Structure formats: C-alpha cells, structure tokens
Amino acid sequence: MTTLTPDAFELNDVQQQILDEAERFSREQLLPLAADMDNTEECPDNLFPLFAKHGYLGITMPEKYGGQGLGLFEQGLICQAMGKYNASAMLTWGAHDNLCGNNILRNANDDIKQRYLPGMCDGSIIGALGLTEPGAGSDALGSMATTAVKDGDEYVLNGSKTYITNGPIADIVLVYAKTNLAAGHRGITAFVLETKTPGFAVAQKLSKMGYRGSPTAELVFNDCRVPAANIVGELNGGVGVVMSGLDVERIFLAPAAVGMAERCLELSLDYALTRKQFDKPIIDFQAIEFKLADMWVGVQIAKAYVYRVLAMCAGAEETEAGRGAVHAHSAAAILHATKMMREAADEAVQIHGGAGYMWEMEVNRLYRDAKLLEIGAGTQEVRRGIVGKYLRGTQQ
Ligand SMILES: Cc1cc2nc3c(=O)[nH]c(=O)nc-3n(C[C@H](O)[C@H](O)[C@H](O)COP(=O)(O)OP(=O)(O)OC[C@H]3O[C@@H](n4cnc5c(N)ncnc54)[C@H](O)[C@@H]3O)c2cc1C
Questions:
Q1: Mean pLDDT calculated for residue range 370-391
Q2: I need a surface site. Which of 38, 127, 309, 343 has the fewest CB within 10 A?
Q3: Is 50 part of a structural domain of the chain?
C-alpha cells in the first residue's frame, strides 16, 4: 500500500507523533471493523473499550478526570486519522468525545464534570448531542419545539430530536430545550439527560446511505424529568453553548474530510498503478494521471487551511467563538475540505471503474460516507451564509 506523507507543511514533532500513532491505531484496529460496521449498520460493543484501551477517550479532558490533557488541535489530528480508515468509528467517537464531552468540559459546572467526565474518559458512559429536531434543522434554535418546564427542582422535558449520532447507544445526551417560550433564542437551555430516565425513548434507529456503522436515532421525551442540577451553562444561556460548540464541531470535523480524501487518493493511486487496460497501467493515461494530480493538490490545500484554522480555534478564547473570524474561518474550512473530499471520493470511484461501483469496495464506502460532512454540523449553504455575512460585516 502506498503511504503518502504530509510534505506540504510541517507539524511539530509531538503533533506528527500523535498523528502517526493515531493513523497506526486506526489502520490496525479500526479499518478491520469498517466493512462489517457498514454492512450490519451496527457499532460493535467493543468499540468504546477499544478507544479506552488505546487512550483515545477524553482527548481534551484534563488528567484529573482520566482524560489525555491534549487540545483541540490534537483532537483534530486524531479525527483525521480515524476518518481516513473508518469514518463511522470516527463519527461515533467524535459525537462522544467532542460534541458531547468537550461541550460539557467547556460549559458545565464542576459537579456535572465530576459526575460524567470520568465515565466518558473510561468508556463506561457514552455521550451524544441532541440539537436537531424533525422541524428544526438549519434553524435549530429558531424552530426548536422541545420544551423544558420547571417543576420543583426538576425540569420536565417534552418533544423530540432527530438524526442524533449515538442516539441508540448513548448513556447521556447533551440536549437543548426551550425553557422560556417567549424569549426566542434567548430562552434555550442545555441539559445533561441520562437516557435511563423514565420518559426518554429511542423512537427509531435510522438507516443511512453512509456512516452506517455509526448509529443514528430519533429520540423522544415524554414528561422526562431532568434535575435542575443538570443544566449546562446558564439557564436560558443555551444559545452560547450551541454557537461556540458549532464552531468547535466544524473545525474538529474538517480534518476528517482531509483524512478521507487522503485515503481516496491512496487507494486510487494503488489501483491506477496496478490496473492494466490496453496493455498498460491506467495511470499511464493522462486522463487518470490528472485526476490523481488534482486529488493530491486538493488534499494539500485543504490540509494547509484546515490546520491553520484548527490552530486558530485551538488558541481562541471562549468569547471569540460563534462570531467574527473564528466563526467564519471554521465554517469556511469545513466548507472547503468537505467539498474537496466529496469530489475526491467521486474521482476515486471513477478511477476504479466498475469495481468502484461495488458495495464491498472501500472507495464505494468512502463515496457513500462522503456526503454527510456537507450536511451535518450545518450544511454547506449555511456555512456559505456565515462567510457571506462575515464579508459584509453584518455577522452577529
Ligand atoms: C447522519 C447524521 C448525523 C447527525 N448527527 C447529529 C447529531 O449528533 N446531533 C444533532 O443535533 N444533529 C445531527 N444531525 C443533524 C444535522 O446537523 C442536520 O441534518 C443539519 O443541520 C441540516 O438540517 P436538516 O437536515 O433539517 O436540513 P434543512 O435545514 O431542512 O435544510 C434543507 C436544505 O435547505 C437548505 N437551507 C436551510 N436553511 C437555509 C438557509 N438559511 N439558507 C440557505 N439554505 C438553507 C439546507 O442547506 C439544505 O440544503 C445529523 C444529521 C445526519 C444526516
């Protein structure tokens, strides 16, 4: 197998080592699981124990909670490596470690952190994030219909969430609900909900075209009682938790697109060197050689920009998220990287010809996986809108 090295820019020695080790772990431990996860639409029971055993849980958590004490940049590098070899495992890990765990770490009080983060770091608690609803996707805040009404020292949740990664397997969900119906965006609160709570149910596990090994569900809350002590951040302060979390989520996921495109290129280069037609390897046809060249250039450019924005976001203050340059560049980086990756997956299938159209081929899985990152974490259109507002100087 051809191994391409990142020669267009330099990571420092520690970052390079983290990326190399994560690639080795992903290639040796996660890649062998990928085809079965895709076929069965199941996340294997041993996945979280595997992450825990190899030190891939709680990447950004302080060591006092059992975490690795690393930063967002390093978490992004690991995301790139996992995305490259098993995108489903990457998404399930990412929803747990970044979308849910990192959000709790950045926004919750000490009591909540003490109760949930050690379990998230040792894999005994699996996390999910519940924002999207059947009627509230891109307009997740404005159209939110899930309510949380105070009753004593509890809140009673009613409503539903959909497309929730890890929904079928989660022990906790960082869930957003309206606590002040009259206050619009300013009336939303984030809660940690334990899924064993009466009134919580997985309404249905959803079947998908890609990322099939990462379980996705519609969740319902029917008079589901959550302690007021489980509020994350301020009461009615959920908008800040959402907005800062979305920037982090976007720039955290962008390297996965880079890793997936790298894999498309590696597989395509190998195939083009070995597949013969008209008595010569198909790489000898300039039409194929140019596709590979364009894929390589796309990976280099996306990687350089993604790393730059990842470093910018990793070094940013919490108050810089959700607006300004951090908001615009995190949206732009994932916009660019995911478009590049989708095009790379398309060309990878094309280079493989009929073989690429076969379900069991790795490029086929990458092609089906590719589309999601242009939809989840805010669609390409929403990302362009963020950049457009930034350019016009009208961003909130
Ligand atoms: C596999 C998967 C996993 C997911 N995981 C999670 C998760 O863990 N947690 C979670 O909370 N959510 C999750 N999501 C939800 C995801 O974030 C939403 O699907 C996404 O935000 C888009 O919302 P929507 O699907 O309702 O599309 P819609 O908002 O209905 O959009 C439909 C189309 O209209 C366009 N559009 C909408 N508004 C505008 C606008 N203002 N300007 C221009 N175009 C617009 C969109 O770009 C899109 O093309 C997941 C989704 C999928 C598919």
A1: 97
A2: 343
A3: yes
Through-space distance between the first and last CA atoms of the chain, rounded to whole angstroms: 48
Helices (H), the chain: 13-25, 31-40, 47-53, 72-85, 87-94, 103-107, 110-122, 238-274, 286-314, 324-356, 362-370, 380-392
Number of domains in the chain: 3
Last residue of a domain, one of 186, 202, 232: 232
Same domain, 376 and 252: yes
User: Which of 99, 138, 252, 387 most suits a substitution to test ligand 1, by most atoms within 8 Å of the C-beta?
Assistant: 138
Ligand 1 mean position to 140 CA, how many Å?
9
358 contact partners, CB below 8 Å, separation of at least 6: 364
Mark whether 338 and 244 lie in a shared domain. yes
Whether residue 199 sits in one domain with residue 261? no
Instruction: Indicate if 260 and 377 belong to the same structural domain.
Output: yes
Residues 173, 156: Cα–Cα separation, whole Å: 15
For 94-131, the pLDDT digits (tens) are: 999 999 999 999 999 999 999 999 999 999 999 999 99
Distance 63 CA to ligand 1 centre (A): 35
Share of the chain above pLDDT 90, in %: 92
In order, the DSSP letters of 315-348 are TS-GGGTTSHHHHHHHHHHHHHHHHHHHHHHHHH
CA distance 13 to 9: 12
Residue 98, domain CATH: 1.10.540.10
Q: Considering the chain, what is the average pLDDT of its residues?
A: 95
Residue with tokens 């490259």: 84
Q: Which residues contact 159 (CB under 8 A, 6 or more apart)?
A: 133, 145, 146, 147, 177, 220, 221
User: Which residue's alpha carbon is at the smallest distance from atom 19 of ligand 1?
Assistant: 376
